[in-house]
Design a protein that fits this description.
The chain has 437 residues and is α/β, with parallel strands linked by helices. It has three domains: 193 residues, Nucleotidyltransferase, domain 5 (2-Layer Sandwich); 93 residues, Orthogonal Bundle (DNA polymerase, domain 1), CATH 1.10.150.80; 89 residues, DNA polymerase, domain 1. The chain has 20 helices and seven strands. The strands form two sheets. It has a five-stranded mixed β-sheet with strand order 4-3-2-5-6, with helices on both faces. Helix 16 packs antiparallel against helix 18. The protein is globular and about 65 Å long.
């Protein structure tokens, strides 16, 4: 047989390693295979769906669309379901706000959601709560996937791309455009298949029990407590260092929030963070001065100018004792980690060592560090470790802080060792004065 020579390209084949070959594009699913159903909007249609769901087989894929960025509330404006023997179903929860009959039909059925923590609260408002849960995003994180968007995971684990593009749409719009319904239906089209592939990968990697514990923790998690000082999350607030300026931010943030709740409008659409920070920086002395600032001179803001200036005046007249501190805490009496070296260098050393220990274990087990152990758990443990520090006491403390058994088993020994680190292990020179309590 004659030797087959490579084509003459002028390049040495050794200069083109195989790993540089562009892989073929994956097929993209642009519409659901069974078509796009019309949203269910009547009680009669819901009753027929309930009967169909009872006859269905296997787990049910569930998703919900909200109007984040447009509306203040986080209610669902569309609910999507898919189950074998039923197909894909779209439900309009504005027309049907009570879906408890559907919940009854799903008793004992495993629900498959992607990023369940985002959708479970709005589903619960409709009377929908799973008895068992499989979270495909969380499964990906436990398998070490760093990119866990649904489309990315479908491409990686199923070899199928998804036509996406309306995640940031205003789902309170009625009627919903056809291409939005396509997007919504595709969100549940592949969830059952993805769940099966991920479940097999979890089993092969010995992480099935990890996933079971994590899914159950998500399913049974209580409602989140209100955030302490939510106004401190105003974008750009780091530019301000004056307590009076921070008081103005707080006052404007609260005035904006009250207006947004009243009108069910996303706060950023009422008044952008940049305008709040600029007003706090300048401190206008009159409504006229306020209207000279960017954003405030627009027609909508001119109509609300008295409201905003009243908030600024209120903050300006506060006594010094009522001004907010420059830095806030987490509501638990623990300072921000950036201040630990000054407040308690030994605690800062413990935190550095504990974080390093968690990172090493996460790498060894191919799981994302934040899913191995929540950063807040590590922070609390490092600030106030148990006494005496040993594997048993650390394990008990981790459990108190909400760590799951698999997390405790993997991290307790290493964290016990990390918490005995000397204060000199903290980066940089430590203050010579005694640490504060």
């Amino acid at each position: 047989m004659d030797e087959q020579l490579p084509p003459a390209t002028g390049d040495d084949p050794a200069d083109s390693p195989a790993d540089e070959v562009t892989p073929p594009p994956v097929p993209v699913l642009r519409e659901p295979r069974d078509g796009v159903p019309e949203p269910i909007t009547t009680e009669a249609q819901l009753a027929a769906l309930v009967a169909s769901i009872r006859r269905g087989r296997g787990p049910v894929a569930v998703d919900a669309e909200r109007a984040s960025g447009y509306r203040y509330s986080q209610r669902a404006y569309l609910v999507q379901l898919r189950r074998s023997g039923v197909g894909t179903v779209l439900i309009d929860p504005i027309a049907l706000p009570d879906l408890r009959p559907l919940d009854d039909a799903l008793t004992g059925v495993e629900w498959i959601l992607h990023a369940a923590t985002q959708d479970l609260p709005c589903l619960l408002e409709l009377g929908l709560a799973p008895a068992a849960l499989f979270d495909t995003e969380l499964a990906g994180r436990l398998l070490g996937d760093e990119r866990v968007a649904l489309g990315t995971m479908a491409e990686r684990h199923l070899g199928i791309g998804l036509e996406k593009g309306h995640s940031a749409a205003d789902w309170s719009t009625r009627p919903l455009p056809y291409d939005w319904l396509v997007y919504a239906a595709l969100d549940v089209e592949l969830l059952v298949d993805l769940r099966d592939v991920l479940a097999a990968e979890l089993e092969r990697s010995g992480k099935t029990e990890w996933a079971r514990q994590e899914f159950e923790a998500v399913r049974t998690a209580p409602a989140s407590a209100p955030r302490v000082d939510p106004w401190r999350r105003t974008s750009g607030i780091h530019r301000l260092r004056n307590r009076r300026q921070l008081a103005i931010v707080r006052a404007l943030w609260e005035a904006r929030d009250a207006y947004a709740v009243e009108r069910d409008i996303a706060p950023g659409r009422v008044l952008p963070d940049s305008a709040i920070v600029e007003a706090a920086r300048v401190g206008p002395g009159s409504v006229r001065d306020l209207l000279q600032l960017p954003i405030f001179g627009g027609p909508r803001q001119r109509r609300r100018a008295d409201r905003w200036f009243a908030a600024i005046t209120e903050a300006r007249e506060l006594p010094d004792a009522d001004l907010p501190p420059v830095t806030g805490g987490n509501g638990d009496g623990i300072p921000a980690p950036s201040r630990w070296r000054e407040r308690d260098p030994q605690a800062a050393a413990r935190l550095t060592a504990a974080r390093a220990a968690v990172a090493q274990i996460a790498e060894r087990h191919a799981v994302l560090a934040q899913n191995l152990l929540a950063s807040d758990v590590v922070r609390r443990l490092a600030w106030a470790p148990p006494a005496p520090v040993d594997s048993a006491s650390v394990a008990a403390r981790l459990a108190e802080l909400g760590a799951r058994p698999w997390q405790v088993e993997l991290t307790a020994d290493a964290l016990a060792a990390a918490l005995t680190v000397a204060p000199t292990a903290a980066p940089g020179p430590a203050p010579e004065r005694p640490s504060e309590p």
